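Saturday, quiet lab. Running sequence design on the structure tokens for the scaffold JK sent over.
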């Protein structure tokens, strides 16, 4: 594969959107909840969430804790959302299809606790009894190599686990079932993304990628990182990651938040913005003309890997095959992918990843992916990255998306044409780019119309 710097124009508007994200119908939430409950085989399912770990709750209920913790309690016909003082009104507004129940142990310390202070009493009143079984969902789960007992609830507060054990007693059963939501091939959140959910994630990916590209195309030497980050035009969309904007002539640590440092000509620079369902990242050099050595030794193998990822991605391919196709592009390079070359994305920036060495997990319809290849190590003062979001959809899912969300479908088709006609990247029909300009990589930000293309 031959990589060149070509003249690439963006046929997309980078102004902020005025529309709201598509809503998920109440019956779709119920389908998800019922599917989880039936798969669990338990009497009850209890899903934990808090401000930093809200993705499973969002997927099942539409509710995200803003200051507190929350528990979603599922029985054969029961749907209870346990929230603290501040979450009660918010839960009613966000999730009217679920009964909100006050449990003041979910509240912040020092707040009133005179109405419903004890979690064990609240759960007992809901009907949980001794001898029953409970499936517990945390924010991630332990693999067998990490623990002697993967069924033991791991990523849930010990207090919650202790209360549940006391309720069911020695004759009852408690088991971690987080895998049912987050397994990289079979998890509900991995594959049960409907047309409505993909449309909602497209809105997020569109907003995030437009914000990133506004910074790439408008940042200039002399600005502070704060000033560059402000070019994103962030309007309050829910974030899945802290906004990152970093520059410098030393080693670039991309996870850092922006600061008061002034961007200098020749700096390495990176920016990333993640919202519920989509993240975009771009990194390069603050130069007005190409650096031939950087192009030859860094840009060329890196973009070959990006193009290969997009062209290899399809239904039925294994994660191991996709991983190996990317690794082959780095055979002669002095760097490798720092982490997995791609992963599943949702309300959280990283759900899981089937893209691992020797993985036999197959790519399936309904998955949403982040093309996420981080080159490392790079010399001090150098940065390069190109992250975007896509969905995988079979013919039936594509037809539903086209029928129910025609504007989303039109944008997806425009992006596919852009990737093929301007970037030389040809996609399988089931790959739906959700970011505004997928795989658009200008290595030199002061000449952003010169971007990587497949010759």
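Result came back. Writing it out in full:
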């Amino acid at each position: 594969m031959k990589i060149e710097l070509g003249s690439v124009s963006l046929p997309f508007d980078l102004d902020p959107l005025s529309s709201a994200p598509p809503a998920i119908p109440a019956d779709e939430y119920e389908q998800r909840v019922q599917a989880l409950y039936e798969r669990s085989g338990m009497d009850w399912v209890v899903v934990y969430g808090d401000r930093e770990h809200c993705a499973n709750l969002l997927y099942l209920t539409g509710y995200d804790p803003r200051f507190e913790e929350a528990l979603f309690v599922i029985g054969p016909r029961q749907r209870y959302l346990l929230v603290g003082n501040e979450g009660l009104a918010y839960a009613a507004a966000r999730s009217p299809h679920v009964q909100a129940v006050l449990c003041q142990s979910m509240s912040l310390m020092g707040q009133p606790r005179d109405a419903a202070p004890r979690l064990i009493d609240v759960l007992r009143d809901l009907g949980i009894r001794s001898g029953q079984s409970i499936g517990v969902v945390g924010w991630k789960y332990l693999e067998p190599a990490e623990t002697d007992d993967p069924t033991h609830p791991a990523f849930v507060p010990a207090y919650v686990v202790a209360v549940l054990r006391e309720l069911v007693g020695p004759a009852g059963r408690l088991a971690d079932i987080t895998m049912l939501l987050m397994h990289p091939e079979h998890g509900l959140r991995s594959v049960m993304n409907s047309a409505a959910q993909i449309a909602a994630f497209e809105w997020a990916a569109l907003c995030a990628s437009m914000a990133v590209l506004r910074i790439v195309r408008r940042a200039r030497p002399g600005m502070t990182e704060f000033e560059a980050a402000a070019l994103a035009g962030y309007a309050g969309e829910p974030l899945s990651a802290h906004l990152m904007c970093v520059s410098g002539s030393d080693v670039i640590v991309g996870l850092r938040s922006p600061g008061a440092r002034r961007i200098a000509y020749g700096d390495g620079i990176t920016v990333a913005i993640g919202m519920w369902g989509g993240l975009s990242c771009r990194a390069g050099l603050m130069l007005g003309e190409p650096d031939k050595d950087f192009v030859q030794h860094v840009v060329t193998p890196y973009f070959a890997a990006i193009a290969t990822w997009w062209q290899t991605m399809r239904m039925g391919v294994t994660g191991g095959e996709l991983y190996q196709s990317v690794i082959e592009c780095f055979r002669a390079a002095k760097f490798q992918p720092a982490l997995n070359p791609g992963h599943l994305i949702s309300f959280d920036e990283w759900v899981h990843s089937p893209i691992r060495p020797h993985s036999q997990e197959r790519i399936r319809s309904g998955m949403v992916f982040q093309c996420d290849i981080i080159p490392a190590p790079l010399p001090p003062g150098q940065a390069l990255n190109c992250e975007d979001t896509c969905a995988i959809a079979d013919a039936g899912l594509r037809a539903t998306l086209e029928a129910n969300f025609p504007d989303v479908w039109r944008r997806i088709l425009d992006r596919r044409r852009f990737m093929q006609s301007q970037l030389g990247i040809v996609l399988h029909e089931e790959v739906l780019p959700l970011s505004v300009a997928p795989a658009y990589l200008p290595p030199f930000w002061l000449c952003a119309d010169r971007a990587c293309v497949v010759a």
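Notes for JK: DSSP finds 13 helices and 17 strands in the chain. The chain has a mean pLDDT of 96. Ask whether to fix the surface positions before the next round.
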